[in-house]
Write a structure and sequence with these properties.
The complex is a heterodimer of chains A (256) and B (473). In chain A, 47% of the residues lie in helices and 15% in strands. Chain A has 256 residues and is of the alpha/beta class. Chain B has 23 helices and twelve strands. In chain B, the strands form three sheets. Chain B has a six-stranded parallel β-sheet, with helices on both faces. In chain B, strands 8-5-6-9 form a four-stranded mixed β-sheet. Chain B is globular. The chains are: A alpha/beta (256), B alpha/beta (473).
Chain lengths: 256, 473
Amino acid sequence: MPAAPTKPLVALFVTCLVDAYRPSVGFASLRLLERVGVRTRVPRAQTCCGQPAFNNGDDDGARAIARQVIEAFRDVDRVVVPSGSCGGMLKLHYPELFDGDPLWAPRARAFAAKVVELGAFLLEQGLEVDAEYRGVAAYHDSCSSLRELGVREQPRQLLAGVRGLEVRDLTDAEVCCGFGGTFCVKYGDISTRLVSDKAADVLATGADTLLAGDLGCLLNIAGRLQRQGSEVRVFHYAELLAGLDPEQPAIGEPSP
Amino acid sequence: MSLPGLTPRKFKIQAQAALADPVLRGALGRARSGFVDKRARAVAAVPEFEALRDEARDLKRHALARLDSLLERYEAEVTAAGGHVHWAETAEDACRLIVDLCARAGARKIAKGKSMAGEEVALNAALEGAGFEVIETDLGEYIIQLADEPPSHIIAPAVHKTREQIAHLFRQHHADLDEDLTEIPDLVNEARRVLRQQFLSADVGITGANLLIADTGSHVLVTNEGNGDLSSTCPRVHIVIAGIEKVVPDFAAAATVLRVLARSATGQAITSYTSVFSGPRRADDLDGPEAFHVVLLDNGRSDMLGSEFREMLRCIRCGACLNHCPVYTAVGGHAYGAVYPGPMGSVLTPLQWGLREAGDLPNACTLNGRCATVCPVRIPLPDLLRRLRSRAHRDALDGARNRRLLAAWVWLARRPGWYRRLSGLGVRVLRWLGRGKGRVSRLPLAAGWTGGRDLPLPEGRTFFEQYRKGRRA
């Protein structure tokens, strides 16, 4: 007798920025995963994907963190990430880091095959969006989503289901916002120039809201908009998809 | 070659100066949109462009795998055509060889076509130091020669100059010009008028080469002004300087490279002039030089060939990575303090000068990856930049403070329990500093961030703290 098909077990890779700065994105992700009917798990042994080490030349440090992540997510069917940047690290760079390692290369590849960006997964699972947001949102594509993971249309398709929401594209949608991980503090002046251009692009759309799928970009652009005194509200797209509590402060707004 | 007064060591300071220059910002802004939009249109008009990039990558890869035999074949064919091939292991060797060739030709005046290899070895300084009069004949190079500045872009050397600045330079340097010209065609005509005399009176012409063709001993030169042709054919002696990686087996391969080169560089299907030269003037030729020399430059390329940076040798110097780089388009070329700026330069310069001298350049990149998506030969520039960061870290060149912070962070990231406790504490401290506001505009130790933007603060307890207490949605 064939076994009853079990629902896939999906683990959430929370990301260090969501953990510290914007837990709402993590809980919104869990709500959305529940809604597509998968079993969810949040492995405790996760901290960060290791990009700060990897992008600053510490390959050994990055590998040590990668091994820990791969171990922590060994027993799940899929690994869902609410970030293109961390997703790119897990999916593309983990296998590179272990290239030629007889034990860890196959593990890294098997792990990478399970990794999927949140929006891409929700669309694949046929999420029926049931949310409302009265506003016009500019959508910012993170460089990693766009170029490492090929995630562009998925979040837009999902957001099209949000009642009352109009989504607009930025003119220079393919240009980096200047976050770049540690780049934004190491080269603060250059980073500020880039994010100023991005903020101007956001304002030029006439939108009252900015959405993106990467918290790094969101903190960066929100910080610049707010420094300029802009009223544009900034959210991760998952927060809107999951149904925003009217009381929920946007990124950078005072919270109780 | 190091640029006068500029050095990669001072990238950050030079970048700050560039950011504060409104005239430069205007010039760079116009150049950025021009290059990027034109390339996009040119690429969109060729449905098979992505396949062409694959083809160009593969043929360059293949040529590099048998570089030695291709170069030998090229040398044999040049010699058979009556030309001479000289091998320069270093920049100094190249300069000495060319100075000697000019001296032996009894030259006084030298007309130069634009050559990045020439810039790389600081050829002008060497020639002028030896007493020759050197005239740059590419309009952009001519402008920056008048301004006594280095190029700021590998295909548009004067891209940082505004029309007004150029008009002013011409009036300063052209004795018989008594007004500032305001229209671009007038400026071009003025340069043409002055340069025409120089081609006719030069003894030696020096040009670069975009491609060397092994099986015929020819080289291909692309320009939009025809100055390369005049520099090659008018003077008595023609000297070509080219990196050894420029060689391809045959014209079929060259054609593929040319198809991606012009589109990537200037958004043209083909440049105004695509010229093929083979040896000196033959008995029945109507024009051409009496003597023809090629100086093949190594200058670190052989080392690259045998290293994890071999892919960089595919570079065909189109400049697309510069035009699509947010950092380059924000600070311009001079900030890099080296002949090759932007992403390709941030790979090449540390490899040629050493990480100790140029170690900051690979870090001056957000790793956004746009350069790699436009590179006509698919060089994985962000990966190469990251590899240079790894080398700098391996050799402990990344600064004691950075290393300590990184080591502490890695230690913490490997211990989830400690990590949770400390991140929970950090979040509380940040929120306390914010005093109920959602953001701070100043934060100790975070001036890099807060100099130009507020720092949004954590919204509450960390995700894991809430999750541990039972929150699930």
